[in-house]
Amino acid sequence: MNEYRTVNYDPQQVGGEVTGASGTLHRGSITIPVPVLKGSGDVLKNIRNRLTSPEFSELIVADFSDVAQSCNVYGDYCRKAAATAEKDFTCLGLALYGDKKLINKLTG
C-alpha cells in the first residue's frame, strides 16, 4: 500500500481515508457541502466589502485576487499586496466557512 505524509485537518469536516483500486491511500473528502457561486467581479467585491460588517465577523474568509494569483511565493504576495491600492485588487473568488445561515444571508 502506498503511503502519504499526514497533514493537519479538521476530522469533523473531513471523512475517513479511502484506498483506491491501485492500493493508494487517499485522505477522505470533505463531509460538508461546498456551494460554488458564480458572480462578476463587482458581485464578489460587494460581498467582500460586506464582510467587514460586525454581523459577519465570525465567518472565516479567504479571498483570491489577481495580486495573489500573480505570485508564486507567499512572501512575494505579501510585498506586492502591501504596495497595491485596494482599488487595484481584482477579486477572483472568495472562500467562506462558518454558519450556513450567515453565509446564505451574505450571498443571498
Brief summary:
The chain has 108 residues and is α+β, with helices and mostly antiparallel strands. 29% of the residues lie in helices and 16% in strands. The protein has four helices and four strands.
Q: Would you write up a description of this structure?
A:
With 108 residues, the protein is α+β, with helices and mostly antiparallel strands. It is built from four helices and four strands; from the N terminus they run E-E-H-E-H-H-E-H. Strand 1 and strand 2 form a beta hairpin. The longest helix has 10 residues, at 41-50. The N and C termini lie far apart (46 Å). The relative contact order is 0.15. Residues 1-7 have low confidence and may be disordered.
Question: What is the topological layout?
Answer:
Layout: E1 18-19, E2 25-26, H1 41-50, E3 60-65, H2 66-69, H3 74-82, E4 91-97, H4 100-107
Antiparallel strand pairs: 1-2, 3-4
Q: Please estimate the helix content.
A: 25-40%
pLDDT averaged over residues: 83
Q: How many extended strands? A: 4
Structural class of the secondary structure composition? alpha+beta
Low-confidence stretches: 1-7
Topology as H/E string?
EEHEHHEH
Query: What is the CA-based Rg, rounded?
Result: 18 Å
Q: What kind of sheet is the major sheet? A: 2 strands, antiparallel
| Strands ordered across the widest β-sheet | 1-2
Beta-sheet strand percentage? 15-25%
Distance between the termini: 46 Å
